[in-house]
Amino acid sequence: MFPSWSFANISFFQPHAFLMIGIPGLEAIHGWISIPFFSMYTAAFTGNCLILLAVRRTPSLHQPMYYFLSMLALTDVGLTLATMPTTLAVLWFDHRLIGFNTCLVQMFFLHFFSVVESSVLLAMSFDRFVAISNPLRYASVLTNNVIIRIGLAIVARATVSLFPLPFLLKRLNFCPGKILLSHSFCFHADVMKRACADITVNIIYGLYVVLSTMGIDSLLIVLSYALILHTVMSLASPRERIRALNTCVSHILAVLVFFIPVIGVSMIHRFGRHLPPIVHALVAYVYLVVPPVLNPVIYSVKSKPIREAMLRVLSEKRKG
Predict the structure, then answer these.
(1) Phi, psi for 99 (deg, rounded to 5)
(2) CA 95 to CA 217: how far, in whole Å?
(3) How far apart are CA 182 and CA 177, in angstroms?
(4) Exposure of 250 in the CB half-sphere (CA atoms within 13 A)
(5) Residue from 212, 206, 200, 207 nearest 108 by CA
(6) Helix pair 304-319, 30-57: axis angle to 10 deg
(7) At CA 195, angle to CA 186 and CA 25, rounded to 5?
(8) How far apart are CA 51 and CA 253, in angstroms?
(9) HSE (CB half, 13 Å, CA atoms) of 218?
(10) What is the pLDDT of residues 138-190, one digit of tens each?
(11) Cα 150 to Cα 160: distance, rounded to the nearest angstrom
(12) Of 115, 178, 227, 273, whose CB count within 10 A is highest?
C-alpha cells in the first residue's frame, strides 16, 4: 500500500517516500538473487574489518602504506553499510519504501564514501611516489601527523563538496506520480530526475562535484604513476625496477576496480537512457558492491605482510 500524500501547498510537493526497486524484470527471483548479494556484502564487511584489525594488531604494519590501506578499508565498510540495509530489505522482504529525508541521508553518505575512496586512492598514489622516488625520506615525509592531516582533509573535502546536494534536492518540486527510483538505494542523479522542476542547477553542481573530486583525482593518479614510471626507469638494475613496480600492483588494481565502474555509471546516467533498466541497475551494483569486495582480496593476495597478519587475526579468533 502506498502512503497517503499530504501537502499544504498544491504548487509545491515533496513525497513522503520513494519506491525502490531491486533488479528490474527479475522480481520473481529476488529471493535467489539475495544469496549472492548477501554473500558479497558479508565478504566486503568481513574482509575490510580483517584488514583494520590486522593493521591495528601488527606493529610492523604501523607504516604510512598500511595506514592508507586502513583508510581504504574503513571507507569500504562505510560504502557497504550505506547500501546494504535497503538492498537486502528489497530483495528479502520486498520492503520498497524509503522516506524522503532518509533517502537524502543515504544519498549523502553513499556519495560521501565514494568521494572519500577516490581521495584515499589518490593519497595512496602519493605514498607510492614518495616511497619509490625518495625512499630515504619516506618516513620523515609521511609522518603520523601528516597522515592524520591528510585523512582529515579527505573527510573535509568530501563533506564540503556534498553538503549542498540534499538542500538542492529539497528545494525542488516533485511530481506526485514520479516516486519510483531506478535502484534499491538513492543516487543523486536518480532522485533529481523525479522532480517536475528545472534541475539545471542540480545537473551542473553534480557534474562539478564529479569533475572536482573523482575527475581531478584520476588525473593526479595518472600523473603520479607517470612520475613513478620515470623514476623506476632511471634505476640501473632490472631487478630493482621490477621490485619497485611490484609495490604498486595492488594499488593499480584497486584504482581500476574503483574508477572503471565510476566511469560506467557516469556514462550510463548521461548517455544511456535508451538502455534497459536492468543495465542501469547492474552497473550501479558493480560500482557500489564490487570494489569493497575485491579490495581485501587484492591486498591479501598481493601483499604478504597483510595476508600473514590477516591469517594471524583469524587464528586468534579461533583460539579465543
Answers:
(1) -60, 150
(2) 37
(3) 15
(4) 24
(5) 206
(6) 100
(7) 50
(8) 17
(9) 14
(10) 999 999 999 999 999 999 999 999 999 999 999 999 988 889 998 999 999 99
(11) 15
(12) 115
